[in-house]
Amino acid sequence: MIRNVLSIILLMLFLGACTMAPKYTRPALSIPSDWPSGKAYKKVEAAPGTPIATELRWKEFFTDEKLIKVITLALDNNRDLRITALNVERAKALYGIQKSELFPTLNAIGSGNKQRVAADLSETGHTYIRNRYSVDLGVLSWEIDLFGRIRSLKDKALEEYLAAEHVQRGTQISLISAVAGAYLLLAADQEGLRLAQSTLDAQQAAYQLIQKRYEVGITNELDLRRSQTQVDSAKREVALYTQMVAQDENTLNLLTGSTVPRELLPHDLSTMSSFKDISPGISSHILLRRPDILAAEHQLKAVNANIGAARAAFFPRISLTTTAGTASNELSGLFHSGGTAWSFAPQVIMPIFDTRLWAALRGVKAEREIALAQYEKAIQTAFKETADALAKQGTVEDQLVAQESLVKASSETYRLTNARYTKGIDSYLSVLDAQRSLYSAETGLIVLRLSKLTNLVMLYKALGGGNDQGTDSSQ
């Protein structure tokens, strides 16, 4: 009997190897295969041998040793990354649970029953005590997956687990870029603070000189008050940058999940090592390697598998309960000869009229359309982010050249107007205008340097770089 039951089980497993899920085909790419071209992208072409972002590990892209240590600190302690790692473990466990539904569960069951039978219910007309003891080994309510419902649910759980893995990778890449961005911003604000402080020192020295000239009657009170406004404005800038530097450090501490040691904090942008050049590749198909796009595709596959489960729900469900063991009316006689007992109880459930099944199928199909739209949107968003970064990369050098020239011209203008004022040829108002223009040009240069480095980080992220686990094997 047991051999026959095992044969039936193996046959059912073989028959249940198929599913009713529609065949998955990757949707057509919803973006141009070529990168944008035009004046904004005139300097996008990379030198021969320049690595593609997805082939460059983050420790190879970032060359500044202190920044590498800060990023490592974040990867070890960041709470968001820790949560996504735990979500992966949970998804893996749920997949294991769903996969186990394909196989029968073997249970050992021991039971005992003692019952007093009343005289009017007894076959003999006398009251007696009925005993029953049994020990069984069996399969309880195992659904035989003839139409692939459980297998489809298993495939859905697998795809959700793989999607969670890619979400974790995406979170890691986002964290790396966020830490690098915060680090660069702190360096830029440190540089801005030093510029504001040096400007304040210069303004105070100029104010003291004008005050002495005013006291001896060489200059008027209007020039003195104008000079004072510059000192007060510079003090405000110093206080503002001091606040921004403190807030930048707080942001960096939050991202790293701990207090960043002072020796790892940046001094300014000019002292940082540059990042390695990267290539976007010759085709936008490289974006299919991005973790967020891979996660969206696995979610699409999960919904596709769920359609198979919804379709299989229209067909009969066959469940099997079978046990084999020994029974006796005496506990001591359980394992004596002649006490063998077995049971075989298959059950078939055939849905005849259940409108919920049709509604469920329509709902799952709608979910597939939603997942498809989300997948296409993820690709389009990735293309836009990359195109924006490439456009900035193609124009930021021209902006920097122009800004550096502006700083030199503003510095020379300030020197000349100050000399003319000292000789009494020009008013102090011209000096004030030159000072403001020079300070604005110098702060603008810091902003552009920050923008260039930050854009490199954003391009690296947009192209899917920063993954130290390799690309998806299915690609």
Number of domains: 2
**Mind telling me the CATH class of the largest domain?**
Mainly Alpha
Quote the average pLDDT: 83
Q: Care to count the β-strands? A: 4
Tell me the strand order in the biggest sheet: 1-2-3-4
* Intertermini distance: 49 Å
**Structural class by sheet pairing and helices:** alpha+beta
Per CATH, the superfamily of the largest domain is: Outer membrane efflux proteins (OEP)
Indicate the overall shape.
Answer: elongated
The CATH architecture of the largest domain can be named as: Up-down Bundle
Helix content: 55-70%
User: What string, H for helix and E for strand, traces the elements in order?
Assistant: HHHHEEHHHEEHH
Count of separate DSSP helical elements: 9
User: Which stretches are low in confidence, meaning pLDDT under 50 for 5 or more residues running?
Assistant: 470-475
Percent range for β-strand residues: 5-15%
Give the CATH topology of the largest domain.
Outer membrane efflux proteins (OEP)
Q: How would you describe the overall organization of this protein?
A:
There is one protein chain. The protein is of the alpha+beta class and 475 residues long. The chain has 2 domains: 18-102 and 146-314 and 359-462, Up-down Bundle (Outer membrane efflux proteins (OEP)), CATH 1.20.1600; 105-144 and 316-350, Outer membrane efflux proteins (OEP). Helices cover 59% and strands 11% of the residues. It has 9 helices and 4 strands, in the order ααααββαααββαα. The chain has helices at 2-15, 58-61, 65-77, 79-100, 149-215, 221-256, 291-312, 355-422, 428-462; strands spanning 106-117, 128-144, 317-328, 340-349. Strands 1-2-3-4 form a 4-stranded antiparallel β-sheet, covered by helices on one side. Helix 3 packs across helix 5 and helix 4 (79-100) packs antiparallel against helix 5 (149-215). The longest helix has 68 residues, at 355-422. The relative contact order is 0.16.
